[in-house]
């Protein structure tokens, strides 16, 4: 532990310049690897020594201002909305981006208006923006980002957005996949769980719509049922379950499925005899339930595919298409 | 959808200056609210109009360079290591920071050396750094950040770190709380689950040490047992469980507890008769297990308390102490 307890003052490039006996501009040329300026090897060494001695860290923002871009890749995301499924995937994506020299940050701001969001992201002048929940991207928002110099715009979304490299992620297909399976299993009155937790509504609504469009083509009905991720909310729903007249449920994801399964069983409602259940994400916990949960597995493009596309976009302005997210029904014992 | 499909060029303050008929410096004074420069109301209006017309977003980095600081609060965190327990808490913290005008970002970089981490964070010149896993903070790392102008350094850590506003989070107390309970329940051969997932080792090791120090004061033993968060790993552990001669386990958290509980039951091992289990975090799923899981609840300071402290640190360089994280044993049916 250092004995010296004074608070160190901020070190600037001026301090480095003074110690190295060069101009501040020369310090900037050396530390920011500015092209088109000749600095002798000995001067360069003197500057690097002085920076090291003073513990000077170059300012990424200053560097990005000079170079006209940063190495930041911004992912708009609230971490509680990012489920267990994608959290490992996002970590892996960050590692892959790191391989290319990018620094990935999650931006946690919540915005009612996509344009406000785009403006807030643009202020950080990232090299790229990668949105998992890209259905709120608009052409205007993309334009705000492009005009601010953001070169890589990649979004998971159900429909192509002008100016954005879109990876297909159609949440209606998730609800449709679950509903098709439940109807094939002979069920006709399907409840679709709508999680009440913030940030999930924009994902849950298209899943409901997908189930509804499948039901409309068969003699089946779909009823949205609200559920919060608490034991109390699940018990309340289970108590009024028989009054709803439903013989099946698609539960948004496996965690809500496990919660509802336990609550239904506590009310003496037998799964799957009285109610068939289908979750989503194929989490480890799905196989642990008794009976084991049927679920929709989401086959994602690999983090390396996304990182490659982001880098291509930043470097060249275009990128090869990335395969879409594909929902696959995994039948176990609850359906 | 706009018919015009050209990719818009980057808009800079020079474009705004041209349209407004003023100098680039004047644009900067107006858009960055620079103090000490007089700009007439009509010039100001002209600049704001031009910026709006062109869709120009000021550069946060440029603003931070001029103001000498940014409004960024950086949280080093891999999102998969941030458990379910803290993910809602982190979201709430981001909202509280937003109230003060800060933008919170999660920095996902992984670093073997705390100094490398500090340098990478320092490059972004945040106003503050908030570390949940602060035991890897060193006085040297704090100095790198302080010298780079970071004013708010707040870390959850077991011991005070020079130059860092420390919030007590002693993971040894979590392991000790679990071990004390298990010993009070008549158990003497305690397994401590060591999760093999990346990022969790630094949290699991002190929990093990805490259990060991309690066991050493009683006639009890502690045995670390490795477990990955997969069904296969849990089954393998359950199959060799009886050979380990353990009558209790503290499982790192509730998710590993649920996984191990199911695997033990599948091997015909009765919980709690043969093995008592204690998880951690008091998640919703703990109450859903059969039998319901005993657990260690972690009482955290509120997100508002942390945001207040961060803002105080940034504004004044000091802050009132924040209450430490407090582990509380919740006994249910597995112990």
UniProtKB/TrEMBL annotation, chains A, B:
Pfam families: LacI, Peripla_BP_3. Coiled coil: none annotated. GO terms for molecular function: DNA binding. SUPFAM superfamilies: lambda repressor-like DNA-binding domains, Periplasmic binding protein-like I. Residues 11-67 form the HTH lacI-type domain. Gene3D superfamilies: 3.40.50.2300, lambda repressor-like DNA-binding domains (1.10.260.40). Keywords: DNA-binding, Transcription, Transcription regulation. It comes from the Bacteria. InterPro entries: HTH_LacI, LacI/GalR-like_sensor, Lambda_DNA-bd_dom_sf, Peripla_BP_I. PANTHER family: LACI-RELATED TRANSCRIPTIONAL REPRESSOR, LACTOSE OPERON REPRESSOR. This is DNA-binding LacI/PurR family transcriptional regulator. It comes from Streptomyces avidinii.
